[in-house]
């Protein structure tokens, strides 16, 4: 039996989940996570995951993206 974890409890989000959670478009998320030194992206092979808390902290400091 597979248990679904709510988005707000997940440590890492897919691009689709992060877009829904933060209200940011997928293309914009791809753009800001393409940098090799991006502090809130986690690569699992070729899959890009977003560290939810780290992106939340990053966005709190930003004026615009």
Commentary on this structure:
- With 65 residues, the chain is α+β, with helices and mostly antiparallel strands.
- The chain has helices at 15-22, 26-33, 52-61, and strands spanning 12-13, 41-44, 47-51.
- It has a three-stranded antiparallel β-sheet with strand order 1-3-2.
- The longest helix is centred in the C-terminal third of the chain and has 10 residues, at 52-61.
- The model has no long low-confidence stretch (mean pLDDT 91).
Label the CATH architecture: Alpha-Beta Complex
First-residue to last-residue Cα separation: 40 Å
SSE series: EHHEEH
Largest sheet: 3 strands, antiparallel
Structural class of the helices, strands and pairings?
A: alpha+beta
Overall 3D geometry? globular
The name CATH uses for the topology is Molybdopterin biosynthesis moea protein, domain 2
Q: Mean pLDDT score, rounded? A: 91
Query: What oligomeric assembly is this protein in?
Result: single chain
The CATH C-level class name: Alpha Beta
The amount of helix comes to: 40-55%
Number of domains: 1
Please give the radius of gyration in angstroms.
Answer: 12 Å
Query: What portion of residues belong to β-strands?
Result: 15-25%
**Overall number of strands:** 3
Low-confidence stretches: none
Strand order of the largest sheet: 1-3-2
Number of helices: 3
């Amino acid at each position: 039996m597979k248990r679904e974890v709510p988005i707000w409890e997940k440590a890492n989000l897919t691009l689709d989940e992060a877009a829904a959670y933060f209200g940011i478009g997928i293309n914009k998320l791809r753009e800001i996570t393409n940098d090799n030194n991006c502090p809130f992206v986690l690569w699992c092979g070729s899959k890009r995951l977003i560290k939810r808390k780290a992106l939340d902290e990053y966005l709190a400091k930003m004026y615009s993206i």
